[in-house]
Amino acid sequence: MADEKDRQEIIVAEFHKKIKEAFEVFDHESNNTVDVREIGTIIRSLGCCPTEGELHDLIAEVEEEEPTGYIRFEKFLPVMTEMLLERRYRPIPEDVLLRAFEVLDSAKRGFLTKDELIKYMTEEGAPHSEMAALENLPRKGPLGKTM
Amino acid sequence: SNCFSLTFIFCGSAALKAALIIQNWYRGYKARLKARQHYALTIFQSIEYADEQGQMQLSTFFSFMLEHYAHVHKEELELRNQSLESEQDMQDRHDYVDLIDVPDSYNGPRLQFPLTCTDIDLLLEAFKEQQILHAHYVLEVLFETKKVLKQMPNFTHVQTSPSKELTICGDLHGKLDDLFMIFYKNGLPSESNPYVFNGDFVDRGKNSIEILIILCVSFLVYPNDLHLNRGNHEDFMMNLRYGFTKEILHKYKLHGKRILQILEELYAWLPIGTIVDNEILVIHGGISETTDLNLLHCIERNKMKSVLIPPMETDRDYDTDSKHNKVGVTFNAHGRIKTNRSSIEHLPKHEWEQIIDILWSDPRGKNGCFPNTGRGGGCYFGPDVTSKILNKYQLKMLIRSHECKPEGYEICHDGKVVTIFSASNYYEEGSNRGAYIKLCSGTAPRFFQYQVTKATCFQPLRQRVYTMESSAIKILKERVISRKSDLTRAFQLQDHRKSGKLSLSQWAFCMENILGLNLPWRSLSSNLVNIDKNGNVEYMSSFQNIHIEKPVQEAHSTLVETLYRYRSDLEIIFNAIDTDHSGLISMEEFRAMWKLFSAHYNVLIDDSQVNKLANLMDLNKDGSIDFNEFLKAFYVVHRYEDLMKPNVTNLG
């Protein structure tokens, strides 16, 4: 019984350190705060993949009562720890991602053209303004897509 | 962050879901790339500042070395201080410039004194063709610059107007392409296009002398419109370590020594800062809570030769010691160093500290003023210190440089402090942009960014991040291998069961403590060690794929490791001793130097081992060691095929 509790404490302590590392790298002024616009990056770099809507809610949870544009570590840590412990917002498995591409490739060609991908990324779902910069995709996507 | 609800009518919700999935994955992928980029930058910065701290800690040791070994240098210095200034200047000109002829066969640029803007154009064209300016002209330019700088006050006061905006550039560090880029985008200096160059023109990059010459010539042509502020690298001791000295001795084999000598003096005459429109202070590093601008306006700045030559302590200073909250000079266990220096040569301690603060401090978000433990000199100053000092002197803003920023600039302390950094790709291709500021009274400052890249700028982001990351990991691994013995001992101490494994936490703890680098070890672990399926670290894998090449087979590996670790420091000491820059050091000098060095550093290396090594290094058995050969012999071999590979199968 005590062992289980110890193990849990160790896991939590390790998560705390990991979260602190990821946070500090974006804490440019070394005062335990980061710009709110970096929170998404930090969360994702730790392996969690919330949707934009979920991210929006998370930010609301860690923001100050009166938003300052900065998120403090003290508020971020418990929320992020819970996310890791509960294994929330797991990244998409590779086969699901592959099928997502296949769905968009209605003609079953095995690839998507650059224009098609841009169209889907910027017009559907929760658009991301940088989606148009396709240079950032890996050379060999799951389908061997064109660049 | 965008949060659009499902407002798009699309045939087939499956397609919508697919798009969402791909977008989600892509965001995660981008985020991980960004994080890796930041980790790489953190590594570069930590190591850079740790090196600087090492420099500062050596200050008393170096001054002691200079006192006792560079006796030739010292005598020269004393002679010079005794003669009249004007006489000395005449003597200088004769010694430095007139005795050197420019041969007819010289194909490089020929300058005409008094200089005009034609000479600036001539130099820019020549340097673009990678020509080297003849030593005669280098010396003449430096000599003339020093003469004019002597007449400048410690702080230059500048006014701007809509027809005369002021451009402020930060660190250039010998990156000539960045200076070309700035002139291309913003125009050459002139009466209607004034510039401030905020220090650190030299070191690290490979065209420090060319940059310095362009800036000096521009200054001579437009002395009221081209302003130069001193940076912490405008310091001959820093140059010994960070590459400028080497560059000069390499490009000017015959006359390099003279160039170095005149540089020493020129640096000390560089103004401390610029004040724009009576409301903006431009200095290289930062401020501290005790910064006294009135005092700084009056001190004899030319007595601040080097940050590594600390001032004498007077009785008065003992009282002020307790009030100072900053890292100042450290003294070794043997107490104060006795000097024969006259008080004419050096600044009193509190004035020296004022300049150190200006050249070395960094702003941070935490209120208060703390010793700058990262660099070992100056302080970290908080927003409260900024407000206090700016208010005290009725200033609105502080513009400074000194720190590399990914975007080339950064604003902090509620808009009151701006960092401007002009060397793009400072750490590595793709590491950061460069920037400059345009100021005009009555309007907000405007920022301009650029990045000098070659073929690699067209690579995808992923490739650029990989380049930067592997470069950072490589230099980090070199640190690791240079502390192999200490690290191994630390690991083994923690490994009670002698399993060869430690928890990630234990491994990170050892790395941080032994290397003294505050890095995100857990996040970096996958790049540095092997981790088994239980998440435990096989700690000896920290040293895999890299080893220090032994200069001679018989050398003991601990000795090799120690010499490798301290090679930069040894190089500086050697250069300081080798006043005729012959590159040779006698056996006694080597032994004496090593004795001092090891005493100061508490390095436990057997004397006999060192002797043996020195003997082995004396390749032609003539009693002298070619030190450059000696240092070149210590290098690190990376097994390239085992360096980090881009992880193609990993989707992020």
Automatic annotation (TrEMBL), chain B:
<keyword id="KW-0479">Metal-binding</keyword>
<dbReference type="InterPro" id="IPR011992">
    <property type="entry name" value="EF-hand-dom_pair"/>
</dbReference>
<dbReference type="InterPro" id="IPR013235">
    <property type="entry name" value="PPP_dom"/>
</dbReference>
<dbReference type="InterPro" id="IPR000048">
    <property type="entry name" value="IQ_motif_EF-hand-BS"/>
</dbReference>
<dbReference type="GO" id="GO:0030145">
    <property type="term" value="F:manganese ion binding"/>
</dbReference>
<keyword id="KW-0106">Calcium</keyword>
<dbReference type="InterPro" id="IPR004843">
    <property type="entry name" value="Calcineurin-like_PHP"/>
</dbReference>
<dbReference type="GO" id="GO:0005506">
    <property type="term" value="F:iron ion binding"/>
</dbReference>
<dbReference type="InterPro" id="IPR012008">
    <property type="entry name" value="Ser/Thr-Pase_EF-hand_contain"/>
</dbReference>
<keyword id="KW-0460">Magnesium</keyword>
<dbReference type="Pfam" id="PF00149">
    <property type="entry name" value="Metallophos"/>
</dbReference>
<feature type="domain" description="EF-hand">
    <location>
        <begin position="565"/>
        <end position="600"/>
    </location>
</feature>
<feature type="domain" description="EF-hand">
    <location>
        <begin position="605"/>
        <end position="640"/>
    </location>
</feature>
<keyword id="KW-0378">Hydrolase</keyword>
<keyword id="KW-0677">Repeat</keyword>
<dbReference type="InterPro" id="IPR051134">
    <property type="entry name" value="PPP_phosphatase"/>
</dbReference>
<dbReference type="Pfam" id="PF00612">
    <property type="entry name" value="IQ"/>
</dbReference>
<dbReference type="InterPro" id="IPR006186">
    <property type="entry name" value="Ser/Thr-sp_prot-phosphatase"/>
</dbReference>
<keyword id="KW-0904">Protein phosphatase</keyword>
<dbReference type="Pfam" id="PF08321">
    <property type="entry name" value="PPP5"/>
</dbReference>
<dbReference type="GO" id="GO:0005509">
    <property type="term" value="F:calcium ion binding"/>
</dbReference>
<protein>
    <recommendedName>
        <fullName>Serine/threonine-protein phosphatase with EF-hands</fullName>
        <ecNumber>3.1.3.16</ecNumber>
    </recommendedName>
</protein>
<dbReference type="InterPro" id="IPR002048">
    <property type="entry name" value="EF_hand_dom"/>
</dbReference>
<comment type="similarity">
    <text>Belongs to the PPP phosphatase family.</text>
</comment>
<dbReference type="Pfam" id="PF13499">
    <property type="entry name" value="EF-hand_7"/>
</dbReference>
<dbReference type="InterPro" id="IPR018247">
    <property type="entry name" value="EF_Hand_1_Ca_BS"/>
</dbReference>
<keyword id="KW-0464">Manganese</keyword>
<dbReference type="GO" id="GO:0050906">
    <property type="term" value="P:detection of stimulus involved in sensory perception"/>
</dbReference>
<dbReference type="InterPro" id="IPR029052">
    <property type="entry name" value="Metallo-depent_PP-like"/>
</dbReference>
<dbReference type="GO" id="GO:0004722">
    <property type="term" value="F:protein serine/threonine phosphatase activity"/>
</dbReference>
